[in-house]
Every structure is written in structure tokens, then in C-alpha cells.
Amino acid sequence: MPRRSPSVRSRGLGAELRELRTERDLTSRAVAEQLGWSPSTLSRLEGGLRGISPEDVAALLVIYKITGTERDRLLERAREADQPGWWEANWPGQTGLPKSLVALIGFESQATRIADVAMLLVPGLLQTAEYSRAVMVGGGLTAQAVEARVAARLGRQAILSRPEPPHFQVLLDEAAVRRPVGGPAVMAAQLRHILTVIDRPSITVQILPLELGAHEGAGGSFVLLEFDKGRAIVHLEHAAGSMFQDEPDDVAPFIEIREALATHALSPADSADFLATAAREHEKDARQL
After folding, report:
1. Which of 63, 137, 140, 166 lies in the 20 to 30 Å Cα band around 147?
2. Is the CATH number 3.30.870 carried by domain 86-288?
């Protein structure tokens, strides 16, 4: 079989192919034997760990007896699987963008539900350019790297304005609301921006007030990405980089944390009132400078 580099699209297509196989009560070994592949090859293909060519898909669809428009759709997905997304095409060789960030942007583009548990900063998908720039500068990045990251971060936000956007759930700690990143004026504008976007039915923001004390999210921030096809993924960041987890046993605790925090946090309506009050306080501080 021709080998191609795996992509986010490959992962979604692989999940669909796995579903077709299981629906027909076929084992991976039985299918692999018919095609002269090893079971591990099919497993990697279904898991999105290797590229998927149209030839691979066509061979599998014969075994699964898929014809007509459904066959055409899956073959078209295979032809598009190795096409770069905007985040790859705009930065050849991923210049200035870490591989983990490129992967995250790709996963965000395919997710149907994104939950961001944010303990320190406003999530990137909600950041204004000024806030994002202040975060990057505070992190010690060079001017060139800062502008590349800010542009990428703003580009990521386009998924929230799609005709069928993912549901974006934010559980935001009060500390992130109080911290005047970029100064009080920048912070006030940032909170006003959040108040604007939460009018969209696909976006939910809930505040975790400081009075909760220690809670399930105190262990740190994370992003949980869920997909129509394929396993959920957790993205974790740390000082030395970031990592992804998709083994169900590893992801399950984060799903539980998300659900518990949504119960303990302020309601969306009360959170909006909280953000409006905090914005006014930052605006007051800005006038006093």
C-alpha cells in the first residue's frame, strides 16, 4: 500500500472505517487477511496513525460492500486526507509554530465539542489580539514569534463562526478573570469580547469562583476535544511543551472533571453578570492610571 503522512483528517476517516468494519461484525484480522495486510497495519490505519490513500479505502469498501454515494463520499474524504489545512499552508514547514500547536489546530477544526478548563488565562479561542499578544510577550517570545502565534490564534477562532460550529464549553477560573493581562484596559476589552461571543448558542462560559476553594480543576488546565467519529482527546500544556492523550482510560478522568466543574461553577447567566462586573472594575482601574 502507498504510505502517506497521517493527518487529522486521516484520524476521522479511520474512525469511520473502523465503524463500518464493526457494524459488519468483522475482525481486523479477518479483513487484513483478505487484503494481504498485517492486522497492525489495519489497526494503525483505523486509528489515524498512518496516512490513508484512496486505494486503501477503495479496497476496504469492497469488503464492506459500500457502493453508490456513500462510496463516493468516503473516497473523496480519502483524497482530501493529506491536504494541508490553512494553518499548515500559511506556515510552510510550520515555521514559528510548534508541532503540538499545529496538531491542536487540526484537532480543533475537526472536533464537534470542545471543553476548555482554564485556570490561569482566558482560552485561546476567546482571546482578543491585544490579550493574546500580551500573553506571548509575557512568555518571553521574540517579536517575530509573537506575531506568528497571535495570527494563528486568531485564525483558530474561525471555527466558532462556522455554519455548524463545535459546541465550545469554557470553565474559567475567577483568577483568570481578575489577572490584568496586558493591563486593566486590555483586560476590560477582553472580558467585553467574551460577553459578546457568549450570545452564540454554541458557546457556554461558566465561572469558577474563588470561594469554591480547592476543586476538581485545581490540578491544572486542559482542553477536551470530542469528535463525531473517533475517540476523544485531551490536550495538556506544561512548561516544557504539551501532550495529547486519547486512550479512553486516560481521558475518562478529564471528562469527569469537566462534568463536576460544570455543576459547581456559576450558571451561564450568573457568569455573564460576573464578567460584566469584572469588566467594569478593570475599566475603573484603567481610568485611574
Report:
1. 166
2. yes
Predicted confidence (pLDDT) per residue in 164-217, tens digit: 999 999 999 999 999 999 999 999 999 999 999 999 999 999 999 999 999 999
Is domain 8-80 in CATH 3.40.50.2300, yes or no? no
Q: How many Å separate Cα 233 from the centre of its chain?
A: 8
b/e sequence 148-159, b meaning 16+ C-beta within 10 Å: bbbbbbeebbeb
Here the cell at position 256 is: 469527569
Contacts of 196 (CB under 8 A, 6+ apart): none
Residue type, 212: L
- The pTM for the full model equals 0.75
Segment 254-266, tens digit of pLDDT: 999 999 999 999 9
Q: Which three cell numbers stand for residue 30?
A: 479477518
The identity of residue 243, as a single letter, is: M
In contact, 112 and 167? CB cutoff 8 Å: yes
Which ranges constitute the DSSP H helices of the chain? 8-23, 28-35, 39-46, 54-64, 68-80, 86-89, 99-110, 129-138, 143-156, 174-178, 184-197, 248-264, 268-288
- The 10s digit of each residue's pLDDT in 43-79 is 888 887 777 888 888 999 999 999 998 998 888 888 8
Q: How many residues are recorded in the chain?
A: 289
Residues of the chain with CATH 3.30.870: 86-288
Residues of the chain with CATH 1.10.260.40: 8-80
The whole-number average pLDDT for the span 207-228 is 93
